[in-house]
TrEMBL record, chain A:
Keywords: FAD, Flavoprotein, Oxidoreductase. It comes from Pseudonocardia abyssalis. This is Acyl-CoA dehydrogenase. The lineage of its organism: Bacteria, Bacillati, Actinomycetota, Actinomycetes, Pseudonocardiales. InterPro entries: AcylCo_DH/oxidase_C (IPR009075). Residues 179-288 form the Acyl-CoA dehydrogenase/oxidase C-terminal domain.
């Protein structure tokens, strides 16, 4: 286990996933350990870590179903502000790409210290005083709020070239890590349950039919983790402006989204009726799998984008694209 | 949330990046393949590592230093790493080049001789394998021992100066062209308490007296498989491979190599390339193409991660089983996509092109999820790895 993952695990093991508000104690611990702003430049109060490191932390965050806006604060809002010369405020942050006065489905809006808005021409920082926020939620009951833009903004800057495209890729890359983690968490719980639940005089995990299903789920979890981690490694190596990174992120979000449904399906099938009730914690992972696969571009959307890229490049370019070597 | 994560084994190693020198090697291989194709030396085929037997091509690869790449220089090899070999292998497979003649020798025999072979055995075979002049088969399966390999009944009886082999091996690819093969045989009586004990590996020269080779045609009618019958075939002591009685450990120790390579998801890749050619101007296929490509990209990254892990001396058997299960199902997914996205029926009589690739892929597909361990057996390995068995 890498050092950063060990640190993340030690912090996250104290987290609680039930509830719909931000886990304030966990957030404080993430702030204190430098994990809350892991990839943000040191000059902006971050740790200056790689996306590979962030991938490990975010996958662990997903596996614990932790209630913190890590992707939003570090990968999106922090980066947008710092790269546009705006000082990054303390506390949890969120970011949204929007055109118009009403911002919809803003992640964690009611819980954060600042909202960064990426408009077609500007980056804006909204502080939360005087904002009109209407609570909304995703399938996992995480805040996805509607916000009315105020007259006065705390800071603004002209949008840098390429920033909108990078924002989209960063959001999908971060979401892919969370998905991979939640899939792993769901599998871990399900394997444990199959070892404990006895029917027909044996733990159900002893039945071949159940073992085959769990192995199928394991292969999806493996694919999910491999895709998310490889996309992070590609972003580290080539940067977000490179076609190879755009390709890798699209493939990773498509693959993790596809795996999410399969892993959730098998997790519920093995858990039986108890997992289908609100009193059981399985839902904390499976509802996140269902919610996150459709956020920041669904698998269908990223598949279509990837397919369009491949078809435009032509048959002979397929293998060079897949290997990232023109 | 209380964590059970630590109790799940690592299902896939961390990502592997290829060394910087890989780019030049890859460019060289691509240029060579383009030349060959321009000259009409061969046309891309599906499942080339089973069906593409071309000794001229194999010798040419040997001449260029692309066989026995990981074998030390003193044995005629090139002393390179698993990742160098990976680059060459994936380029050959993606192009649908005829790699069957050297496939088994290059993938399994070379590394196994380096691991378990005697000095004499290494000197006898390795230089010719690296030159592309010596071809091998693998003699594991028998009529009554398939997935349950420990049930092999081929018997090795000790005689003066060596052993006598009697029994039957089946599904032996390329035995009718090969010079030799590794035979797994029972050298000590079966012990029901330990079914894996008493098995040994022997290097059998296929022109030995008492060896009979009979064709077993595939669904296509093509002759790649064989039945190999031994009738008291004499094997000198010098041709015992590794430890007497250690056959099981030797055979299963190689599985991570055998199960995780690019051949476990690229068997039908030439069909996918041909399919894209047919989709020019066809609308509404982006999503399905993207789905296939995202799965392909992921599999390649998984397979590379295992290769990197093997390079650093680990044996990620669980990850290899996962790659092979996902990969061989993916090979079938390409066939389904080809059938559903365009309306061109398979044509086994076509010389080349989409219809021929589709015909071969459909008829070869059952083998993908069988060879080298069925997907059900692989999932059993994964279940055991997760502590369920």
């Amino acid at each position: 286990m890498s050092e950063v993952l060990e640190l993340a695990e030690s912090v996250l093991s104290g987290s609680s996933s039930t509830g719909t508000d931000l886990d304030a104690a966990l957030w404080r611990a993430l702030e204190e350990t430098g994990l809350a702003r892991l990839t943000l430049a040191e000059a902006a109060g971050g740790s200056g870590a790689s996306f590979a490191d962030a991938a490990e932390v975010l996958q662990a965050t997903g596996a614990h179903a932790a209630r913190v806006p890590l992707v939003e604060t570090d990968l999106l809002a922090g980066w947008l502000l710092h790269s546009h010369g705006i000082a990054v405020p303390d506390g949890p942050l969120t970011a949204v790409a929007a055109d118009g006065d009403t911002l919809t489905r803003v992640a964690w809006a009611r819980e954060v210290a600042g909202i960064v808005v990426l408009t077609p021409s500007e980056v804006l920082l909204l502080t939360v005083d005087g904002l009109e926020i209407t609570a909304g939620a995703n399938l996992a009951e995480e805040p996805r709020d509607t916000v009315t833009r105020p007259e006065v903004v705390a800071a603004r800057a002209d949008l840098a070239p390429g920033a909108a495209a990078e924002f989209r890729l960063r959001a999908a890359l971060g979401r892919a890590q969370l998905l991979a983690g939640a899939a792993r968490g769901a599998l871990a719980r399900t394997v444990r349950y199959a070892g404990e639940r006895v029917q027909f005089g044996r733990p159900i995990g002893k039945f071949q039919a159940v073992q085959q299903q769990l192995a199928l789920a394991a292969s999806e979890v493996a694919a999910s983790g491999a895709a998310a981690s490889a996309a992070a490694a590609t972003a580290d190596r080539d940067g977000f402006g490179a076609p190879s990174t755009a390709f890798a992120v699209a493939a990773a979000k498509a693959r993790t989204g596809e795996a999410a449904g399969e892993v959730a399906r098998i997790a519920h099938q093995v858990h039986g009726a108890i997992g289908f009730t609100r009193e059981h914690d399985l839902r904390l992972l499976t509802t996140r799998l269902w919610a996150w696969r459709d956020e920041d571009g669904s698998d269908a959307q990223w598949q279509a984008e990837l397919g369009a890229t491949v078809l435009a490049a032509g048959a002979e370019a397929l293998w060079p694209l897949v290997t990232g070597t023109p | 949330m209380t964590s059970t994560l630590s109790r799940l084994p690592a299902l896939v190693p961390p990502p592997t990046e290829l060394p910087p020198r890989a780019a030049a090697l890859r460019a060289e291989v691509r240029a060579f393949l383009a030349e060959e194709r321009a000259a009409g030396a061969w046309s891309p085929r599906a499942d080339v590592w089973l069906s593409g037997w071309d000794e001229r091509f194999t010798r040419e690869l040997g001449r260029r230093g692309w066989l026995g790449m990981t074998i030390p220089v003193e044995y005629g090899g090139h002393g390179l790493g698993a990742l160098d070999r990976y680059v060459v292998t994936e380029e050959l497979l993606a192009a649908g080049a005829p790699v069957a003649a050297h496939w088994v020798a290059d993938r399994q025999i070379g590394p196994t001789l380096m691991r378990f072979g005697t000095e004499e055995q290494r000197r006898r075979y390795l230089p010719r394998i690296a030159a592309g002049e010596c071809y091998f088969g693998i003699g594991m399966s028998e009529p009554d021992a398939g997935s349950d390999l420990a049930a092999v009944r081929t018997k090795a009886v000790q005689v003066d100066g060596g052993w006598e082999l009697t029994g039957t091996k089946v599904w032996t690819s390329g035995a009718h062209h090969a010079h030799a093969f590794f035979a797994l045989a029972r050298s000590a009586p079966k012990d029901d308490a330990n079914r894996h004990a008493g098995l040994s590996q022997f290097i059998v020269d296929l022109d030995s007296p008492g060896v009979q080779i009979r064709p077993i045609p595939l669904l296509t009618g093509a002759h790649h498989f064989n039945e190999v019958v031994f009738d008291r075939v004499f094997i000198p002591d010098a041709q015992v491979l590794g430890e007497l009685g250690g056959g099981w450990a030797q055979v299963t120790g190689e599985l991570a190599f055998e199960r995780s390579g690019p051949e476990r998801f690229l068997s039908t890749f030439p069909l996918l390339t041909a399919l894209l050619g047919e989709l020019t101007g066809v609308s509404g296929t982006e999503r399905e193409v993207g789905r296939i490509v995202s799965r392909l990209w992921t599999l390649r990254r998984m397979s590379l991660a295992v290769a990197g892990s093997l390079e650093s001396g680990e044996a990620p058997e669980l990850a290899a089983a996962v790659v092979k299960d996902l990969g061989t199902r993916f090979e079938n997914e390409i066939v389904d996509a080809a059938r559903t996205l365009v309306a061109i029926p398979p044509d086994p009589g076509a010389e080349s092109g989409f219809a021929r690739l589709l015909a071969d892929a459909v008829l070869h597909a059952p083998g993908f999820t069988l060879r080298g361990g069925t997907n059900e057996v692989l999932r059993g390995i994964v279940a055991r790895g997760m502590g369920l068995r």
